[in-house]
Amino acid sequence: MEILPQLILGAINGLVWGFILALIALGLTLIFGLLEIINISHGELYMLGAVLGWYILQLTGNFWVSLLLAPLVVGLLGLAIERGVLRPIEGKPIITIIATFGLSMIFQQAVLSVFGGAPQRIAAPVGWEVSIMGFGYSGYRFFVALCSLLAISALWGFLHRFKYGMWMRAVRQDREMALALGIPISQVYMLTFGLGAALAAFGGILAAPIVALEFRMGLDILPAVFIVVIIGGLGSLEGSLLAALLIGELEGITSVFVTPTTARIFSLVFMSAVLLFRPEGLLGRHR
Amino acid sequence: MRGRVGSAVRIAIPMGGLIGLIVLPLFLTPYQRSVLTEIMIWGLFAMAFDLLYGYTGMLSFGQALFFGAGAYGIAFAVLRLGWGIWEALAFGILVAAFLALLVGVVAVRVTGHYFLILTITFSVISVLVLQSGHWRWLSRGYVASPFTPPPVPLGPWKLSLVDPLMNYYWVLVFVVVSFVTCWRIVHSPLGKVFQCIRENEERSRLIGYHVERFKLIAFVLGGLFSGLSGALLALTLRYVDISFFELALSGKAVAWTVIGGAGTLVGAFLGASVFIISTDYLSAWIVNVPLSIGLLLLLTVTFAPDGLVGVVRRLTLGSVSADGGKPS
Q1: Dist CA B266 CA B192 (whole Å)
Q2: Which helix H or strand E contains B157, and what residues bound it?
Q3: Is CATH 1.10.60 the classification given to domain A3-116+130-277?
Q4: Are the beta carbons of A92 and B290 separated by less than 8 Å?
Q5: How many Cβ pairs closer than 8 A exist between chain A and B?
Q6: What is the pTM (predicted TM-score) of this model?
Q7: Which of A31, A113, A120, B230 is a Cys-bridge partner for A213, taking CB atoms 3.0 to 4.6 Å apart?
Q8: Distance CA A211, CA A272 (A)
Q9: How far apart are CA B228 and CA B93, in angstroms?
Q10: What was the ipTM of the complex prediction?
Q11: Which pLDDT value is given to residue B218?
């Protein structure tokens, strides 16, 4: 087997994976930037997106319905979480982190008892194949990259062109001043958490035909997402996007030569190196 | 008021507690005794975390890595190397401490949320490595590896840890020794530096302390005691598997300590016993134990966020001591 086509395939796989990572990491970093909390249950929101998508697919038989509905439902769940769980303990960072950890346990176990422990699969809704240097390559992966790109552009547009998006940026910059100007901060917090949750779920349903669906899939992706937000700089959206593509490529290309586990260790080492030389991350502003 | 009576009480309470722990198991059913043994092991694990968080202000969410390393270390030494109990125990603890040193070198350079994320990442990746089935020489992955604890040579006798009562006292000895050691550490000049770093890292640096070095010492100590608790649980259950590494364990240590009261050492044991006993009762009618732990966790952080020791202090002293302050 020649090495060049494999390298190209690895690079494309890495790009697709990087885009999925970017969706999840953007949600996480958006939440951190405003609420200043690390959402440990973020991986579970990704998992919920995929699992809910599977259920909706079973009910309707239409992948496109679940692609739209799953993020919407998880987004609403995110609104409820912020309002019901996080709001009462606002301003207590440690307690909030423990609460999100409790949530992640609840989601995992709830899915385990309803969905079961056996992994499930979703067939790719896009059948066509692309031929790359003689290898057939699933067209669905290109579709995933395209969808993520659209979602990320939409997020950028939302943050820069829409009222709530601009409010979000305002609260990020200066909470006190935003409050003084009459921006409804509580609503903005709620919306941010919901939006972050919906992004994670969108990543989940997009990834569903590529990966195995099970209650632990949130834990599989959590370290990668954390590595991404650390490398990119906590709270920096541009940094998260850049780092996600970087880590996706790193793991995609190294996976050609070594096992995926070893590839993950490589990104861990890469993250450690970034931290040792640039503790604020690639595009982070402050520690 | 706080003169002679206070110091007498301060000696009487721990002594009474110790005598209680020595005598109590003789009156308990085997099941209750096994619960008590586990409470002590988990309390030790949570105390190791308290040393990091409650005293040095480092919120580590990855202590399960060192817990699991201690357990795997002792099982590896017994199963593959055929070592005796003391060598195997020392091996398990050293493996955990060495891993803590490796992770710590990177982790102590960052603070706050970065530190939290970093410790989670290292810990979860260790689970992925064991789960993946690669590197099989290192572990046996998912598969539980049962082993028989070697007898403890003590003078002319050989004590068998397979006997639950003997194992209870064996655990008790280590928990008491660790507790006293940690107590001495946090009240030593070293412990004062830890607390100084917890209160204000910048100022400690300006005073002239090498902050990273002290944080590394604290991190390795935390790893060491976590490893000890993992090794003790492996000896008690007589097997190890991947569940010794789970993120949920780190989360439990955090929860028990914060619920019990951070920065008190005793709070860790208090939180662990309250949680373990109540989930034990809950699991009688809720089938899914982790689910009930999650729910209990949510309820307690909402309704008693300053911990049980804080509640007790408020009730007895009428004010909250400055010692139990939580860094944020």
Answers
A1: 18
A2: strand B157-159
A3: no
A4: no
A5: 132
A6: 0.85
A7: A120
A8: 27
A9: 5
A10: 0.80
A11: 95
